[in-house]
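Tutorial handout. Part one gives the primary structure; part two gives the three-dimensional structure as tokens.
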Amino acid sequence: MKRSCLAGAAALLALVVATPAMAGACRVTDFSDKPLSSLNEVERLSFAVQMTRTEYDRLKAAQPGSSNYVELIAKSESLPAARQAARDRLYSLKLDNVMDYAAFWSHDWLTDEAIRKFADCESGRQPGLAFYGRSENPGEFHLTYVHVTPIGIEKITTRVIASDNVANIDQLKADLAALGPQDNYVARTFAAKLIDPAKPAVIVMRGGWETPKFAYIPAYPTADYFNGAK
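Part two.
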């Protein structure tokens, strides 16, 4: 019994050491040096929908004309109010699957390396399979995925369940087969090649017997709403 407890404690310590950012909040803005003024409207709104309390407080204090000044946040009365205003504005743009896409748009401006660091940080708080990603160009989307299983439960195998409009999905299947069953694994990035860049894509994966996770990949650019940024 003592040996089992020691082994469990050692495994837990190893996970904590591997994800040092677990101790604090995971804020998208901590993983990028880009000002919010450099983002297009859809990215800023998507970020605002999902920003943390600390990010809100920091941006609420930004002065007009500064690189991180966002009028919607500055004029809001509270974090929930700012999130709702951003959500309402996103819906008003009449984009398909807007909130599913916003999950990616909220950190689309980060590099692959920064997204993996952000994903590893967040995965310490939400066990299971999680998706992140960004558009490399209209025909290529970099999907980052990570999985954490509570220590001592079981090793899981991550599989592709279905996909649409992804030309090289067999490569992702091969990557996952090579990965094999794992207790946990850090964030990994797959460069998805889209068959038709003008159409959205979907990748469905599942970790073990968990509920399948859907990655809804938007077509880039998105009409005029990206202000020519993508």
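Part three, for discussion. Residues 1-23 have pLDDT under 50 and may be disordered. Residues 2-217 form one domain.
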